[in-house]
């Protein structure tokens, strides 16, 4: 199917009614719905589905850099490129296709990309939807260069929530984080679940491989599992920043939270011929009685 700007999107469907949409622009997942057709990812009502920026929502991919300060644009160029569908990618040494609906995408650097980041790579992305509606993303990045290179990476995931003030994130307690609002100064999180009452923009260092986002009002919990991705980014722009962003409604920060599986604090280095794999799995479950109280 085509998206608003005529760019191809691939729709994945589970036998029970769940679905996911992946745009070839950025390899970005733009929708993930449960068996009842409810959208689980946030998309701004002011999102722009057009180059040169990723649309505000879904799961843009940050590569080869997260944030600014590197040699490429903010969050890297991968989210602003047209990816190709690859019919027969090299085998995944993980049993990921059985009983699933999936698509394989490929990104290789253009001449322009090579000007700001002079490294040859092949970036393979598999997005799959399991019969139970679980969304799986597997990124494989290979160095096809003659010399080593380093990169950072994030699945910049915009979750849809009913009210940010009622949201709690569990799994990051007592971890160290770098605060992007304080020149990346390092702090230590206290023992409680994370809640939101102002702008948050942090990179939690060496986070556990499972994190939960509890949406009290919707009585549901997102479970994020990750492999090869040591860090977790938590971002909510809150009121002032939302007003300054042209592609986000003034009040929409209440309906979103970004929680990204990422590799940022220690960039990944690949020698010639080496490949890195970073995997994220998203699942939504009803909140249990215990976590509700
Ligand atoms: C977050 C960053 O992850 O992404 C923020 O930490 C940034 O600083 C935000 O503003 C959104 O970035 P962009 O380029 O999608 O507007």
Oligomer: single chain
- β content, as a range? 35-45%
> Mean pLDDT across all residues, rounded?
94
N-to-C CA distance: 43 Å
Secondary-structure class? mainly beta
Percent helix among the residues? under 10%
Strand element count:
19
Report Rg.
Answer: 18 Å
Q: Element order, helices and strands?
A: EEEEEEHEEEEEEEEEEEHEEH
How many distinct helices? 3
Question: Which sheet architecture does the biggest sheet show?
Answer: 8 strands, antiparallel
The 3D shape can be described as: globular
How would you describe this structure to a colleague?
- The chain has 293 residues and is mostly beta strands.
- 6% of the residues lie in helices and 41% in strands.
- It is built from 3 helices and 19 strands.
- A hairpin with a 5-residue loop joins β7 and β8.
- The longest helix has 7 residues.
- The termini are far apart.
- 40% of the residues are buried.
- It binds 6-O-phosphono-beta-D-glucopyranose (BG6).
- The site of 6-O-phosphono-beta-D-glucopyranose (BG6) has 9 residues, from β17.
- Pfam families: Aldose_epim.
- This is glucose-6-phosphate 1-epimerase.
- Its EC number is 5.1.3.15.
């Amino acid at each position: 199917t085509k998206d608003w700007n005529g760019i191809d999107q691939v729709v994945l469907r589970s036998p029970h009614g769940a679905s996911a949409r992946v745009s070839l622009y950025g390899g970005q997942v733009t929708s993930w719905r449960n068996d009842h057709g409810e959208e689980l990812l946030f998309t701004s009502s002011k999102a722009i589905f057009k180059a040169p920026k990723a649309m505000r929502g879904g799961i843009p991919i940050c590569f080869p850099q997260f944030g600014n300060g590197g040699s490429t644009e903010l969050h890297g160029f991968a989210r602003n490129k047209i990816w190709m569908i690859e019919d027969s990618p090299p085998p995944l040494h993980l049993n990921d296709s059985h009983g699933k609906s999936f698509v394989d995408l490929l990104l290789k650097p253009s001449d322009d990309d090579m000007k700001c980041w002079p490294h040859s790579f092949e970036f393979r992305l598999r997005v799959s939807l399991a019969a139970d509606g679980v969304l799986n993303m597997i990124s494989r990045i290979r160095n096809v260069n003659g010399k080593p290179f380093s990169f950072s990476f994030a699945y910049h995931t915009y979750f849809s929530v009913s009210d940010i003030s009622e949201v709690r994130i569990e799994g990051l307690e007592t971890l160290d984080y770098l605060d992007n609002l304080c020149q990346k100064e390092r702090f230590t999180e206290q023992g409680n679940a994370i809640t939101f009452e102002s702008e948050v923009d942090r990179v939690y260092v060496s986070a556990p491989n499972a994190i939960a986002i509890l949406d009290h009002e919707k009585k549901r919990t997102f479970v994020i599992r990750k492999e090869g991705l040591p860090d977790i980014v938590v971002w909510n722009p809150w009121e002032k920043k939302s007003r300054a962003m042209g592609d986000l409604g003034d009040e929409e920060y209440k309906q979103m939270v970004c929680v990204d599986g990422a590799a940022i604090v220690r960039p990944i280095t690949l020698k010639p011929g080496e490949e890195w794999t970073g995997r994220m799995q998203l699942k939504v479950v009803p909140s249990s009685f215990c976590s509700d109280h």
